[in-house]
Amino acid sequence: MGNFHNNPLPNNHFRKDWQERVKTWFNQPGRKQRRHRNRVKRAAALGARPIKSLRPAVHCQTIRYNMKVREGYGFTLAELKQAGIRKREAGGLGIKVDYRRRNLSEEGLKANVDRLKDYKARIIVFPKRTRRSVLLKKEGKEDDTGKDKRFTRSDVPVKQVDASTYTRSAVPLPAPTHEPPRAITADDRAVNAYETLRAAWQWEKDANKRIQAAKKTDEQ
């Protein structure tokens, strides 16, 4: 570098001994194996608890990927209501809830309701700890009274239920359903989809006007 104007001569400090200040991570593969062993040990200690939370089956976005089915964030309140599950108890059963998602089709609603019912049929729920169980635990004893009062499948006796089979295994996603390609008929050409949707939208928009007009006719 040259010296310009009345500036001082450059004095670059390149002898910083950077090799002594480098931090290495040679234990990263070993830590990865240790975390894996801890996860396996923790999952075995949990018993028959599901491996992961249950999520709904939704379609991907955009016209390019909307034929694929993937797991969404959570179930809607309408899906939980039809499946007979309260929104406050869904979290305790390992079911994710999404308060923002809406159901836009009857097919998607039915698929997720069936998914919830399948999960509900295989799950086994033990009752919460009672005061008696807490006192027995302090005395070093075990409370066996609540083990028979559990919810399980109605068509399978309690003794024959394999907890790992019905609760730990994940509920598979439904297969994507779509109409196979076919030839366009004369009836299809006669129907105007835009006018049909527009008329249905206008009918729903004028619902309040029809209600008010019906009230006036009843008063007269």
Would you write up a description of this structure?
The protein has 220 residues and is mainly α. It has a domain at 47-171. Helix content is 43%, strand content 3%. It has helices at residues 28-45, 62-65, 77-83, 87-90, 106-122, 131-138, 163-168, 186-190, 193-205, 207-219; strands at residues 57-59, 69-71. The chain has a two-stranded antiparallel sheet with strand order 1-2. Helix 3 crosses helix 5. The radius of gyration is 31 Å and the shape is extended. The N and C termini lie far apart (99 Å).
Largest sheet features: 2 strands, antiparallel
Q: Would you count the extended β strands for me?
A: 2
What structural class do helix, strand and pairing data support? mainly alpha
Placed side by side, the strands forming the largest sheet appear as 1-2
Radius of gyration: 31 Å
Strand content of the residues, in percent? under 5%
Q: Quick one: overall form? A: extended
How helical, in percent, are the residues?
40-55%
Whole-number mean pLDDT: 82
The CA-CA distance between the termini, in Å, is 99 Å
**How many distinct helices?**
10
Helix-strand sequence? HEHEHHHHHHHH
Catalogue the unreliable spans.
146-164
GO molecular function, one term: structural constituent of ribosome
Keywords: Ribonucleoprotein, Ribosomal protein
Pfam family, one: Ribosomal_L13e
Protein name: 60S ribosomal protein L13
